[in-house]
Amino acid sequence: LVGIVSRADLVRAFSRADEEIEREIREDVLLGVMLLDYEDFEIAVDDGCVRIGGRVNTEDDARILERCVRRVPGVVALEADLHWRNDDSPRQRHAGSEWA
To answer: What global pTM score does this model have?
Structure first.
């Protein structure tokens, strides 16, 4: 027997500081993955609960951003207030074509 691992030890291994979570969202997700300027977004992290607001190009971009933020280690909840500039719905994509 080398040692005992308690539940608290496991939880502590996965917990991260809010500042570290926010930095990863800004630098890795917004800038690195989405190629967006993180200065255009409002981000708040409190005990792993993330609130993010801002504007992206399309609704698909908003959904991708939400999925990426949820995957950041330490994020336990997400409240997103994202808006998009362009309509990328199927109806809009095919408007004016034979698919409409």
So the answer is: 0.76
